[in-house]
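Subject: design request, 618 residues
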């Protein structure tokens, strides 16, 4: 006899998947428990609490001090975005200190006036790593992605003021010699070795522009520019016949010590520099050449992909747990009244008017979603207030609110012009529920979110791991992120609750049959994100120019939408699964809104200043 997989059994399976993910991640990042990882927090000389992780390989001792590398995340990210580099460099014997810059991750937020103090915290990280007894203070490197790399440039300028500089070399990941205030640090490197991972399809860097901001040369043409040639020629104008070659080590001697310049040329987009085996190999090549790896391994010898696999597995386990823990609770005595009293079936739609409302509603929603996103990314992006201290959740939140209001209007029209005339009952479909059911819905949603994130916090505490894949992450967070999330929660509540009502009470019908209807609506929910991302990068890879525009928001918008597409598809699927057991559209909507808000607010940049926060280099 086959054993039926109940919600409780699936919940146990989900927990097992999460545990396998955490154990696997821990084993990969510690090289089978050989590397120690410590969570750090300390007060910088500028008076800012900084958060970092310290990776200590077994070869690093007071008797055998090892080279050290400070790794830095990019803007709107956190230190874990450097995991690929941390894994590969630490297993080669380098001590790694991976930093959350000011206002990022678990580091303290500051005002815009103090944001760049101490190179956004990078100088304090360099000073910290130099005090460690098992670090060779003559061999300290810095590498950062995007704004993390430009912050490293600021740290070099500060380092030049020391009697004995600490920074030996710098590797830019999708960055150049500028900083985010527009400062040019090409003349600050001196005798330091400097490398650059400059993608041919970088969303932000390596193009040249006229005074009006029009692009003159694309990132693909970077090696042909005077900027690239001057960089490789140690900040000196080269001879007319100088040819810049990718991945070639250009060497010059300073006081008997060789200094290196190199530009690596992958073909990925800006954020993929943090999750590309090719780029990991370039980092290994650079630091092996400049600092010397205590445990040399070939650049192609990489294991970080297993960490990415286990992180993705954890995401799957997390969302399975959210769904089936919810369904398990609906089977309990107290929450049992939320269970549907009869089998939930799709509404019959056979007439042309019903089909027109279904397909027309989808088309209108997708179009509005796309155009309203472009509006928000151009008008809302980068603006913060004393109340809304994070621009990414504000931008996505306002977009979500606009889409939610549009769906309310669409549902009202649909009900008045079609549903009411064809026997639709707001009570029978679940739009109207009792106060008791509403209270239990709120309570269960809060319980599910709390217990689900409890798994994440336990994983961080016991395994120094969480659930993530590339630019999408579910991580533990500090208490202030809960308060910040409450500011943004209303935006996401409107969208996810209204979407769940629309998908299940108004559009759960026989069009496409059972599974087809669900798939159609899941794809529709993510369609605008998919379309905008595809349009941007098809154009970029075919013409080397961005389709949506050159403003900072227009460049970063499609990057944000990559993870948003998966979230919207998954939220729609979860909504349908829970509705079919409860005939309650609000439960899944509340859970999705809380999860998305916490995920958004714990994985971005926080400022204490109101106003625009746009990099002057864009």
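Subject: RE: design request

Done. Sequence follows.
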């Amino acid at each position: 006899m086959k054993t039926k997989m109940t919600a409780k059994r699936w919940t146990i399976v989900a927990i097992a998947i999460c545990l396998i993910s955490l154990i696997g991640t821990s084993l990969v990042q510690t090289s089978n428990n050989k590397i120690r990882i410590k969570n750090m927090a300390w007060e910088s000389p500028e008076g800012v609490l900084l958060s970092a992780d310290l990776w200590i390989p077994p070869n690093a001792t007071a008797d055998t001090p090892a080279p050290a590398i400070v790794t830095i995340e990019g803007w709107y990210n956190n230190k874990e975005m450097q995991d690929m580099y941390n894994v590969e460099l630490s297993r080669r014997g380098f001590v790694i200190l991976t930093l959350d810059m000011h206002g990022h991750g678990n580091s303290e937020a500051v005002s815009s006036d103090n944001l760049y103090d101490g190179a956004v915290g990078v100088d304090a990280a360099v000073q910290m790593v130099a005090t460690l007894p098992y670090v060779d203070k003559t061999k300290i490197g810095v590498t950062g992605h995007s704004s993390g790399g430009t912050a490293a440039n600021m740290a070099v300028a500060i380092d030049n003021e020391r009697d004995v500089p600490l920074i030996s070399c710098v590797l830019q990941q999708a960055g150049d010699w500028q900083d985010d205030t527009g400062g040019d640090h090409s003349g600050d490197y001196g005798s330091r070795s400097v490398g650059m991972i400059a993608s041919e399809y970088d969303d932000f860097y390596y193009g040249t522009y006229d005074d009006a901001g029009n692009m003159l040369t694309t990132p693909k043409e970077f090696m042909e520019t005077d900027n690239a040639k001057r960089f490789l020629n140690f900040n000196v104008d080269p001879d007319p016949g100088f040819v810049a070659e990718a991945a070639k080590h250009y060497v010059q001697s300073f006081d008997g010590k060789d200094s290196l310049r190199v530009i690596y040329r992958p073909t990925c987009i800006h954020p993929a520099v943090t999750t590309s085996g090719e780029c990991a190999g370039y980092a290994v090549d650079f630091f092996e050449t400049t600092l010397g790896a205590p445990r040399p391994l070939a650049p192609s010898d990489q294991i970080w992909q297993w960490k990415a696999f286990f992180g993705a597995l954890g995401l799957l386990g997390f969302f399975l747990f959210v769904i089936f823990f919810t369904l398990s609770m609906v089977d309990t005595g107290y929450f049992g009244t939320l269970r549907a009293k009869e089998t939930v079936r799709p509404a019959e739609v056979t007439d042309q008017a019903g089909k027109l409302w279904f397909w027309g509603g989808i088309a209108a929603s997708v179009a509005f979603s796309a155009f309203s996103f472009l509006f928000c990314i151009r008008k809302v992006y980068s603006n913060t207030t004393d109340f809304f201290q994070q621009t990414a959740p504000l931008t996505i939140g306002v977009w979500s609110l606009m889409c939610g209001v549009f769906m309310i209007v669409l549902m009202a029209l649909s009900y008045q012009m079609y549903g009411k005339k064809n026997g639709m009952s707001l009570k029978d479909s679940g739009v109207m529920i009792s106060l008791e059911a509403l209270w239990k819905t709120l309570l269960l949603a809060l319980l599910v979110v709390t217990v689900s994130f409890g798994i994440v916090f336990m994983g961080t505490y016991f395994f120094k791991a969480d659930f993530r894949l590339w630019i999408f992450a579910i991580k533990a967070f500090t208490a202030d992120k809960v308060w910040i999330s409450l500011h943004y929660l209303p935006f996401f509540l409107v969208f996810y609750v209204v979407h769940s009502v629309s998908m299940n009470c108004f559009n759960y019908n026989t069009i496409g049959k059972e599974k087809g209807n669900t798939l159609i609506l899941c794809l529709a929910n993510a369609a605008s994100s998919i379309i905008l991302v595809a349009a941007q990068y098809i154009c970029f890879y075919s013409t080397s120019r961005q389709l949506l525009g050159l403003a900072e928001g227009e460049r970063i918008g499609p990057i944000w939408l990559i993870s948003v597409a998966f979230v919207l598809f998954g939220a729609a699927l979860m909504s349908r699964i829970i509705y079919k057991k409860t005939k309650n559209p609000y439960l899944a909507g509340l859970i999705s809104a809380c999860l998305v808000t916490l995920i958004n607010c714990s994985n971005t940049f926080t400022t204490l200043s109101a106003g625009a926060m746009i990099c002057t280099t864009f």
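The two ends are 65 Å apart (CA to CA).
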